[in-house]
Records
---
Amino acid sequence: MLIEDRFFDQEWVQSMSNEDFRMLMYLLHSASKKCGIVELNMRMLNYAANTGRTYTKDEVLKRFAKMLTAIPGHADTAIFHNWIAVNWTRDGRAMDIERNPLDKSIAKELAAYGLTIAKVNAMASAKVEVAPPTMRNTKAASEAVTAISDVIKMFAKFWETYPAECPRKVDKAKCLTKFCSYMAKAKDRDALFKDIMDGLAKWKACTTWTKDGGQFIRAPLVWLNNMNWKDTPANGNANATGNANASYKASDVEGIF
């Protein structure tokens, strides 16, 4: 992760606005660990900012131009252009792509986006320092980042627990967005998460989901959209998926159940 020692003591961190700080924490958390490539999920970024207004992708890129660059030809994707240098370069050592397996894997990930290590380094050297806005309340920003991190951890647990046998366990990003929308409105996130996980446990135990190798397990996005954790599953009744299936199709998302 692109974070220096004593991160919260850094002057550039303390000079950030609350909303910038919260968005940066989400971006850093979401970036690929090898190359610092990140998908700009604007719903999540606006949830992280928590200002009541809606930021655009271009605004976010401008706000973080000092460290983040859009990847040409890949919509809603950007890269922390100093990530590789900070995390993988030691004592000025150049990347040895031909000999070092780690360097090869980094080069391979970059190549999928039409990038090379040289191109990324060029992005970094071309950047102009941007004076950040004034920080208003570091403690409030830190608490907000902790809340965002907790929600992401909750979702990770939910996704891990959702049956791997489900042939429709897809749309993870959309599921995360839906999950976060519930958490953002919850008066007690911990209580809601417990309800979701308890409800999921009941569905995992019902015969509808356990029979036929899990062929009738609902897609997680359907399950979340319909708040099925509040329902009592009908054992052995595969047709009980009908209403959920209709809702799923109505949302213009591919899949059934």
---
Amino acid sequence: MKIISLQPSVSIILDRLGCLDSLAACTRYCLEAVPALRDRSLPVVHDSWSTKAEELLPVPADLVIASVPYRQESLTAILKSGRPALTLSPRNLADIYQDIRLIASVVGAAPKGEALVAEMQAEIEAVKARMAAISPKPLVYCEEWGKPLIHSQLWVMELVEAAGGKFTGTPGATTEAEAIAATDPDVIVAAWCGAGDRVPLERIVEKRRWQNLRAVRSGRVYCIADELLNTPAPTLIGGLHALAQAIRPDIFGSLHGDSGRKIDLISLNASKLM
């Protein structure tokens, strides 16, 4: 089975399953998310949002796997490529677990898929257990995009709650700076799609006139790397750890990466607001 992967989440899952040899082509974002792919000289195609039939047709493959987000034009292009297509559209953690199982079954690695899901579930439950008896829950605003302001997805809300926070707003919905200011969150997290860890925290606080919000006054405005919250894959566990540090640093401040720094958590530089 040879697969064209149109989203990093698909390639990450195949990597965690030990099935990178199944890939016939991938996107440039997959190369960023899975460094092991960089030396494989695979054809590079556009992602689920912008792929074209003419770039898929020359690739010798048995299956195209795509995942959110889509456009009508990209879905049409996938169908025009004439190959079987698996189009994923997860909304919550349960959907993501099912997608992992489905991809694992496609490549003949069902037991590894079950083990990977179990590993994710166990880590989420372990974090949740540490928060079980702790209250009150800090109010957390998570932002997936800044123009317009868009709340993070439902699976991020689930991770926020597992990490001891209370998600403000409707997952995936647009909002306004004034509406967020009215809720006065304890913690603000920005994870913009495609921005990596380069969200301009100081600029958005100034432009939205958020200087007097509790999160800003206490220095609890953070950027979490895009791929840790917006990619429906096992990398969400890294996002969970980063959220835990942001929401309850008194409890989760000991979660460190190999370098000794806090995992993928960039905080507001208050001096730039002076």
---
Amino acid sequence: MIEWATMAAPVLTVLVVDDEERLRELVRGYLAQAGFSVLVAADGPQALELAHCHQPDLLVLDLMLPGIDGLDVCRQLRTFSDAYVLMLTARAEEIDRVVGLEVGADDYLTKPFSPRELVARVRAMLRRPRTSGQSAFPPGEAAPRVFGPLRIDEARHEITLDGLPLSLTATEYGLLAALSAYPGRVFTRAQLLEQVWGGDYFGDDHVVDVHIANLRHKLGEESARPRLIETVRGVGYRLKASVAGGQ
């Protein structure tokens, strides 16, 4: 009798970084029970060392850490890793800082939180393609797409602004991909969450606004005088159709 071997799905690794041992172990237990390989760190330097050595797929990262705080850990992480980052914060008003400019966090949870919700967020994030540009544009559109000063080359996975390379996080790239696929079309926050974060995302839709602000900053835009991304008050966002094709 021939037994056909089945290829098991790879076990994804999550690094949990929190200086509260009780919370750290609670999250570790829930994630391990959900089938993830889990590493833990109590501070920033240990987190960066583990991230270098093990290249985790996602970090659950507390904002308030001794020594190097979560924002600095995230900044340093982005120099060598494209792992997802789910930031934990104790205060809702810190949200803009958490997913702030050039930090590179992908999502956040405000303490106290449900461990089951955290696991659900982790699962949803890891179902998204991590590599920017992967499945970002409609198939078959290989020709570069030009929007005024912005040039998107799908085939090369390159974006330039005024002729200079533009560095975007995967989330920012996903938002730009969604908007630029249909110039002039207005996307609601819910539609952008569906396109970029996935249909099973159930967090605060304010995260869309923060990442749009980050993207605008990198595009050299002011929300009051946008060259490319317009806010449609009470509805959502769109890429200005008037700049399509380099007009």
